[in-house]
Amino acid sequence: MAHRKVLIVDDDKLVSWALARDLESDDCRVALIADGESACKAYREHEPDVVLLDLKLPGIDGLETLRRLKREAPDIVVIMMTAYATVQTTVEAVKIGATDYIKKPFSYDELKAVLDRALQHHDLSQEVTRMRHRLKQEHGIGSIIGDADNMRHVFALIRKIARNDATTVLVNGESGTGKDLVAKAIHYESDRSQGPFMAMNCGSMPDTLLESELFGHEKGAFTDAKAVKKGLFELANHGTVLLDEIGDASASLQVKLLRFIEEKTFKRIGGTKDIDVDVRIVAATNRALDLMVKEGSFREDLYYRLNVILVNLPPLRERESDISLLTNFFIDQFNKEFNKRVAGIDPEALRVLMKYTWPGNVRELRNVLERIMILEDTQTIRVQHLPLELTQAPAGNESDLFSLPSPGVALSGVEKQLIQQALQRTGGNQTRAANLLKISRHALRYKMRKHSLST
Ligand SMILES: Nc1ncnc2c1ncn2[C@@H]1O[C@H](COP(=O)(O)OP(=O)(O)O)[C@@H](O)[C@H]1O
Ligand SMILES: [Mg+2]
């Protein structure tokens, strides 16, 4: 209560003086007026946190005064005071936007309880507004650093997608290119920004668990289902769901997702009731889904459903001009985070960054800078601070690693050999072998069957 500003509008001088005295002894600042006509002017002058407004006033009455105050400041907190509250006037006052009301005569303690509640509510809703604003600033399109032409194209696309709420979106790009950032920006730039943003990695856990995370389950649907659980799609109602690493979705999950996207309705596991939700789906992947479709490891119908709009994020090596922007951005960020004062990077070191191929893209650049800023005590980042893989990287690109023998070679034979090598190196662990080959485990198993390698 302390240090709040209160405006009292009441023609009963005795009541308002007594009130003012009590409030002032609680360290509040109080202004008094006796009629509704001057309420708006007094509001502008004093900018109170709360208005105590008598219902019965000379001239324009309390309800009309309330109406005018609300027009002046829609967020205003107004408590109605009334000696003869009828249900009707109370309902009317709440409809117009009174926060609460209190019946005369009241004790100061009673009033304090009402005031505390109203102000708490007001503070909370202001906090929510501020948080939403901050979230939008933190995760909106402004959070994605870039000025290269191909990134400008991405920004324009994100804006269009955010305005048009109807479609699913597929975000494609190598690991570390900023797919998560794009998905969030789509959400926070759209009308859904008031709703939740939720993400699920489609390859992160066994199928049954994943399905129950996404769709929820009824009590008793399986042994551990001790209570009803809402899934992500329900929790994200009116918001956006990012299905990350969609290329890793199992065949069974693919079927369920397809049905959900087509019908926007689903059943909890073990449930019979259809549940409708309004969520936008953004799917992300670093794999070439079109190739997976050809290989038969990704459903064609799901692919077309997801791929209504495609956002293609270019790898970092194709936006060389952004490397300097990003570097300075991360230096600033880590200066704040680690309380450092690194001034920048010298031109030669920047050239090394611009020449490097960045297989891990922006994430790798960020990690490199983070490590330097933690470990090195320097004003300026120089070549000697850069990790060896950057300074000793073979010139040219990855394609030089493999050279085609002049008589040519059977592609499928090479593929089989590489798969065998990967499996050998990982002691037969398919998930890790798939990681080495940068394909999904499903794709690996598919290829193993194709090459008659035992799965
Ligand atoms: N254009 C960008 N501007 C600023 N930060 C970026 C940008 N792209 C990626 N990042 C940062 O790089 C990291 C990886 O991004 P993320 O969106 O998780 O990539 P992906 O999902 O494609 O693997 C995150 O820390 C992210 O904040
Ligand atoms: Mg990601």
Topology:
Blueprint: E1 5-9, H1 13-25, E2 29-33, H2 39-46, E3 50-54, H3 62-72, E4 78-82, H4 87-96, E5 100-103, H5 108-139, H6 149-163, E6 169-172, H7 179-188, E7 197-201, H8 207-215, E8 216-217, E9 229-230, H9 232-235, E10 240-244, H10 251-263, E11 265-266, E12 275-276, E13 280-285, H11 289-295, H12 300-306, E14 309-312, H13 321-338, E15 344-345, H14 347-355, H15 361-375, E16 380-381, H16 388-391, H17 411-425, H18 430-437, H19 441-450
Parallel strand pairs: 1-2, 1-3, 3-4, 4-5, 6-13, 6-14, 7-10, 10-13, 15-16
Antiparallel strand pairs: 8-9, 11-12
The chain binds adenosine-5'-diphosphate (ADP) and magnesium ion.
Q: Can you tell me the residue ranges where pLDDT is under 50 for at least 5 consecutive residues?
A: 396-400
Rg calc = 31 Å
Q: How many angstroms does the end-to-end distance come to?
A: 70 Å
Main β-sheet: number of strands, strand sense, barrel status? 5 strands, parallel
CATH class of the largest domain: Alpha Beta
SS strand fraction: 5-15%
CATH third-tier fold name of the largest domain: Rossmann fold
The domain tally reads: 4
Number of helices: 19
